């Protein structure tokens, strides 16, 4: 196993190298990120232990470039070292891709066991710790390098590395620079810069046109804000992963709000007609919420610019055992992908909940009816 230590502290560098040589590692050392890059290119180390801040830069910027160069290969496991005055927290370090964070001074033997844990996990296929994607939706304002004004849209698939920007026109080229404002709430706003990592110029079922934005240098400042937001969202997902009794009226209200944020401010309106009485269903909240949101988005989006167009959402008691949710769009502007969306994303969720769906599309309106069992 190849081990690389990167630090300006010669005494610490010697101690780490001595320990890992004793543990039968092939040991390499560097006193700067430039030297570390040369070692990585030549030797391909499996583990890197490095100071967070080096004389020639920030380790995370170096690590990002290292991961990009690795392409399909797994990048080295990284363990970070910081001084006692550092503001870098373990949560942020792990979110940035590190395996662990040590504050100096620390026990070298403890570092060795952490490296062994990382090596074992890597061999078992666990290459990431906290960078799983979480279902988040955020309002987004984005200004392309080639444009003079911000575009208002929405973002999904937000992670510690970047986010997806939904765009219907003026899709940028790869590596184009962008300025952005992610707006989760009035108080949770992230402003910064990024670059276009990939583009999707043709929409497909459940996937809008747009591009993937990668956070630019200084990614820690974004991650510090994202850590509590994403962790809270992940906690909510875990808490709601099982079947629970949910208020159908509130559930639909949440989905309508999410659909509005995805469509952004357009001419088409969503009219909600909930019943006076409370109606509960047994469901997995994230899945049903996602199904309603995606369905409304796909129904409304094609007619979003038509004056006086609207989608009416109605809850109707069918009988003692079942309830119906009826989506009616006037005029009919259904996208080409609605059948695919229902078949590939909505129907499997409804099958899980013992629910059914019917649709009728004509020249006057589009109607989709979902029948759900009551609790």
Report on this structure.
- With 375 residues, the protein is of the alpha+beta class.
- Helix content is 33%, strand content 31%.
- The protein is built from 9 helices and 20 strands.
Helix tally? 9
* Euclidean distance between termini CA atoms: 57 Å
Helix proportion of residues, in percent?
A: 25-40%
Q: How many β strands by DSSP?
A: 20
Mean of residue pLDDT values: 84
Instruction: Please outline the major beta sheet.
Output: 6 strands, antiparallel, barrel
Radius of gyration: 25 Å
Return residue spans where pLDDT drops below 50 for at least 5 consecutive residues: 126-133
Order of helices and strands: EHEHEEEHEHEHEEEEEEHEHEEHEEHEE
How would you write the strand order of the largest sheet? 8-9-10-13-12-11
Strand-residue fraction? 25-35%
Secondary-structure-derived class: alpha+beta
Quaternary status: single chain
Fold topology:
Blueprint: E1 2-6, H1 10-22, E2 26-30, H2 33-43, E3 47-51, E4 53-54, E5 57-58, H3 59-70, E6 77-82, H4 90-95, E7 100-103, H5 108-123, E8 138-144, E9 151-156, E10 162-166, E11 177-183, E12 189-200, E13 210-215, H6 220-239, E14 244-247, H7 248-263, E15 269-273, E16 280-283, H8 285-300, E17 310-317, E18 322-330, H9 338-352, E19 356-361, E20 366-373
Parallel strand pairs: 1-2, 1-3, 3-6, 6-7, 15-17
Antiparallel strand pairs: 4-5, 8-9, 8-11, 9-10, 10-13, 11-12, 12-13, 14-16, 17-18, 18-20, 19-20
Helix pairs in contact: 7-8, 8-9
